[in-house]
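Dear Dr. H.,

I hope your travels went smoothly. While you were away I took the liberty of generating a structure for the chain from your last submission, since the lab meeting agenda had it listed for discussion. I wanted you to have the full record in hand beforehand rather than looking at slides cold. The sequence, exactly as received, is reproduced here:
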Amino acid sequence: MEYTPIRISTVMPKTAITFALYIYFKDQFIKYLDMGKSLDEELLSKLKKQKIARFYIRDIEELNYQKYLDDVLGKTMDDPQVNMVDKINFAEGSATTAVEDMQKDPTSKQSYNTSKRAAKTLRRLISENPDSLKNFYGRAGNENDMLIKHCLNVSALAVGLAKVNAISEEDQDTLALAGLLHDVGISQLKESEQALFTKEYKQMSAEEKVIYHQHPTLGSDVIKKNELVTPDIIELVLCHEEKISGNGYPNKKSKLTLAQEILSLCNSYDKRVTIFKVSAKDALKAVQMDELGNYNLELINKFKKQLKEDGIVV
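The corresponding predicted structure, in token form, is as follows:
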């Protein structure tokens, strides 16, 4: 029997589950909760305090889990009785699961649909709750999951900046999804080369830069194999390191759509913060100085205003 890990934050309290939950203990899977039962808030809180981040489900029940997520995602975002922290936890958990699944298998239709749902949930969280971006963005991440944390942050920032630019909800959903998927190409590099993601670009050798420049193309190429992925998502993934100066990669484009420029700017900013541990304030200063000419000044100024109004930069 095979098992699949799921984030504990995607299991809502007082909601009957349509699958059995297992925990991994002493090299074996032990049933923790039967199908049809629910977790109470106190027990769920206790598990989180014990730093138990994952449950497991049987592979044959994964479709039940996906349907459960569909149902709970909508109800959670719609319910005014659900507090902001729980909404953020659930949005973060579903988005993390989506990124993990797409990194493992970018061609999976099921994983892509999970990502679409997670992106829409994240967009709703950011656009419908004024303080959510600050609270979502300011969360500490596991050092082993910095790539995932970066993807979630880029997605959230892109939604916020898209909203400032009066982009439609449908296009915000597209940007949110592209943000979650933009670095899928990192997983397509050789394992020994993936460490380049955490190396500052100016410290890379010429050979390392050639290798690292491949990841947008590798990402767009692999998701093309998934027939559900739309051309705009493929192009956003391909262009997330491009800059209007023509100094980006892989194709040194000098003309970007607004959505492509937003994704690239948010990627550039958050990599400083999440990967290289620069403060939010200093990262903004760096963008204003180092990226001038790489992005439209008006967009940079709107980004600055957004970060300050949302409380990310104080």
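Two observations you may find useful: The chain has 13 helices and four strands. The chain has two domains: 1-61, 83-309.

With kind regards,
E. W.
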